[in-house]
């Protein structure tokens, strides 16, 4: 026992500060969030401790899930995630596929595609708020004005002000900003495939399509899964881009993260914590199976 402590002691001392910080400020706050979410802490007086709050268990969760407003937020989240995932995966893959072939100025194209990643969601949101302006006709600006100039007036629309599909307009700048990241992942995957595999397939008479379908695409499946997980969990936490383009009170673009902010701003800490817990559970349902599968593959 003493020998084990002597061996592990320096390592534990080295890791202790990080473990304590993670334990307190990550897992400790997660526990505190769940504790708040099962109380009736809905007023400023309760939030400041002037009035007591009692445990109501899962009533906040059932009330939220039964409310039409929160159901709309969840529907918006699903719609945003679907458009965001498809857009980034398709655009990122196409860019990587084009750059995988030897072309002049590859470094320039790669820089152009990756540049949006260097811009914060808040900064890009300010620009895209103007581009996605819903004014039409003589008051048109942004993309609607561009459609007017090129004679494509029928493409003018309300963008994020559309009640049903407004959230999909918010996905456009998100796709623009993160497609380069997905491109970098796929391009690294393409470049990591040995050239011998390609040459062997060509010697066996495989066409270019069959080469990609039967040789290259299967090699990229782990990268595609990783990209899906990363982009998927980022879309579930969408907040800053939406807040930069729209407003918290806008029904058409609200998602659970925005609801959490609105509840917190009105001192409804219980519902705010409940929304945060629901988001954490959704992310865990997506991430945990992926991590378990990754751990199993590493042990093989």
UniProtKB/TrEMBL annotation:
SUPFAM superfamilies: MetI-like. It is found in: Cell membrane. GO terms for biological process: transmembrane transport. Keywords: Cell membrane, Membrane, Transmembrane, Transmembrane helix, Transport. The chain crosses the membrane at residues 12-32, 77-99, 111-131, 163-190, 211-234, 269-292. InterPro entries: ABC_transporter_permease, MetI-like, MetI-like_sf. Residues 74-292 form the ABC transmembrane type-1 domain. Signal peptide: none annotated. The keyword Nucleotidyltransferase does not apply. It is a multi-pass membrane protein. It holds the Pfam family BPD_transp_1. One of its GO terms (cellular component) is plasma membrane. The keyword Transmembrane helix applies. Belongs to the binding-protein-dependent transport system permease family. PANTHER family: ABC TRANSPORTER PERMEASE PROTEIN. This is Sugar ABC transporter permease.
């Amino acid at each position: 026992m003493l020998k084990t402590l002597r061996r592990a002691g320096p390592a534990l001392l080295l890791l202790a500060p990080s473990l304590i910080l993670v334990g307190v400020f990550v897992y400790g706050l997660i526990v505190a969030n769940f504790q708040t979410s099962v109380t009736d802490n809905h007023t400023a007086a309760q939030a400041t401790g002037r009035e007591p709050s009692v445990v109501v268990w899962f009533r906040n969760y059932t009330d939220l899930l039964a409310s039409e407003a929160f159901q709309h937020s969840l529907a918006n989240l699903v719609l945003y995630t679907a458009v965001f995932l498809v857009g980034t995966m398709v655009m990122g893959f196409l860019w990587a596929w084009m750059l995988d072939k030897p072309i002049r100025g590859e470094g320039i194209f790669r820089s152009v595609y990756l540049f949006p990643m260097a811009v914060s969601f808040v900064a890009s949101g300010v620009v895209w708020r103007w581009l996605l302006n819903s004014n039409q006709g003589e008051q048109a600006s942004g993309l609607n004005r561009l459609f007017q100039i090129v004679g494509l007036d029928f493409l003018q629309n309300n963008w994020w002000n559309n009640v049903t599909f407004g959230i999909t307009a918010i996905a456009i700048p998100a796709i623009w900003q993160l497609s380069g990241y997905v491109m970098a992942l796929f391009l690294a995957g393409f470049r990591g495939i040995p050239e011998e595999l390609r040459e062997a397939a060509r010697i066996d008479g495989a066409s270019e399509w069959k080469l990609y379908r039967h040789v290259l695409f299967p090699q990229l499946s782990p990268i595609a899964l990783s990209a899906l997980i990363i982009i998927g969990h980022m879309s579930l936490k969408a907040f800053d881009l939406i807040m930069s383009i729209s407003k918290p009170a806008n029904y058409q673009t609200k998602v659970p993260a925005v609801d959490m902010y609105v509840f917190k701003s009105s001192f409804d800490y219980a519902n705010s914590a409940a929304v945060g817990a629901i988001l954490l559970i959704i992310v865990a349902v997506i991430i945990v199976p992926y991590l378990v599968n990754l751990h199993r593959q590493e042990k093989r």
